[in-house]
């Protein structure tokens, strides 16, 4: 679900903001439906997906993220070949952690779209709330900030990179790769 309004479009026009917002609506719907076969093509060939390690520091002037340390550091190829394939009919019988599928919802809000400094690319920041339920377990929720780079292409937008900054230091989500 995509909520919220534009907060910062200093470098983009209304048409760009609207098309980016539509891209996120489509991406969110595909991920919520576990439709990775249609989600993977939204990723550019050089796509990088990272979730830095979050720590709680006593000194508020220090970053809450550990430089160079990632809970997740993936590429388009690793997501397509090592993760998304687990849900294909030929593999699902062996993907015990995916049966039954977890139910996830992503709530994306407070989009900020600015020029990324490279032709045809925009930088997008957003807030994300993810809820996940596996079997009859209680719902698990996590909040994060997302920083993406999108590239304009013939069919709309392609995702070049995504960095997710989790708000929590102790991760309770069952899977990080496809959840956020």
UniProtKB/TrEMBL annotation:
Keywords: Oxidoreductase. One of its GO terms (molecular function) is oxidoreductase activity. The keyword Transcription regulation does not apply. One of its GO terms (biological process) is 3-phenylpropionate catabolic process. InterPro entries: NTF2-like_dom_sf (IPR032710), Rng_hydr_dOase-bsu (IPR000391). Belongs to the bacterial ring-hydroxylating dioxygenase beta subunit family. This is Ring hydroxylating beta subunit. It comes from Rhodococcus jostii.
């Amino acid at each position: 679900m995509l909520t919220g309004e534009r907060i910062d479009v200093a470098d983009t026009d209304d048409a760009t903001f609207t098309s980016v917002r539509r891209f996120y609506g489509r991406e969110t719907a595909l991920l919520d439906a576990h439709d990775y076969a249609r989600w993977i093509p939204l990723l550019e060939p050089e796509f990088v997906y990272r979730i830095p390690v979050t720590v709680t520091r006593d000194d508020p002037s220090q970053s809450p993220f550990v430089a160079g340390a990632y809970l997740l550091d993936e590429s388009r190829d690793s997501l397509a070949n090592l993760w998304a394939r687990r849900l294909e009919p030929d593999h699902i019988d062996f993907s015990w952690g995916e049966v039954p599928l977890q139910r996830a919802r992503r709530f994306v809000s407070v989009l900020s779209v600015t020029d990324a400094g490279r032709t045809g690319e925009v930088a997008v920041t957003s807030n994300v709330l993810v809820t996940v339920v596996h079997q009859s377990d209680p719902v698990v929720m996590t909040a994060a900030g997302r920083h993406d780079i999108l590239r304009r292409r013939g069919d709309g937008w392609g995702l070049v990179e995504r960095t997710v900054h989790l708000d929590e230091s102790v991760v309770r989500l069952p899977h990080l790769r496809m959840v956020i």
